[in-house]
Amino acid sequence: MSDVTVERDEGHLATVEIHRPPANYFDAALIGELADVYERLDDDPDCRAIVLCSEGKHFCAGANLGSPGSPADEPRSLYRQALRLFASATPVVAAVQGAAVGGGLGLALSADFRVASPSSRFSANFARLGFHHGFALSVTLPALAGQQTALDLLLTGRRVRGEEALALGLCDRLAEDDGIRERARALATEVALSAPLAVRSIRATLRAGLLERVEHALEREASEQDRLRASDDFREGVAASIERRPPRFQGS
User: Fold this and answer.
1) Mean pLDDT of the chain
2) Which has the closest alpha carbon to 114: 192, 35, 52?
């Protein structure tokens, strides 16, 4: 089975699902496959909204930094594909169960809307790994939560549960754990009931200049990730995460 599947219905919706449970780690190939799907749906006049979801316990834990050949080793390849997601024309509602961590948070914030539950967890944990954030969080996080909140979340790497995420603007609706997808579909249906030409036009106006800002941010993020990947702190951060212990950073 493909890592990304598409299910269509009669209500002008497409459900796009990632299949790498339980953590749904991504790489450039998966994000590229996701972008391919988005582009095909952009060309489908009967598709007016996308529900993005994932199989298993967590929405997405980002890249598996502890694995050989991790996307962190070649961020530009990953980010070329990520840029394609931001270029899509169809509104996207993400159904965020469990954790959206690191790059997984970036993937969630690339959508137009997010539906979560009180037990969902949002975390930009990069600094706790001795690493620089990525997936255009430099653009999306301040835009949604404000500059000061973005600074808080990026420098502390702390976890934000669903209710706080709603208050901060990281998600748009809350549902019970077993009702996240249903609520996401309901929100996507509301979008799909509006005039499709008007929806795309309004969305394009509100996102004017976004692609250029995202492209610039991704280049800066990739450069900093290249630099910090060679640090002792990054190696310590990854080791501490794998060993489930507090990191001992030395600033080197």
Assistant:
1) 95
2) 52
- Provide the CATH number for the domain formed by 1-176+198-252 in this structure: 3.90.226.10
pLDDT in tens, 34-65: 999 999 999 999 999 999 999 999 999 999 87
Whether 66 shows a pLDDT value over 80: the answer reads no
Domain extent listing, the chain: 1-176+198-252
Partners of 14 in beta bridges: 8, 50
* Spatial separation of the C-alpha atoms in residues 140 and 115, rounded to whole Å: 16
Q: Which residues pair with 159 in a beta bridge?
A: 123
Write b or e for each residue in 228-243: b if 16 or more Cβ atoms lie within 10 A of its Cβ, otherwise e: bbebebbebbbebbee
36 token code pair = 């391919």
b/e per residue 161-188 (b: at least 16 CB within 10 A) = ebeebbebebbbbbbeeeebbebbbebb
pLDDT at residue 83 tops 70? yes
- What distance in Å separates the CA atoms of residue 209 and residue 201, rounded to the nearest whole number? 14
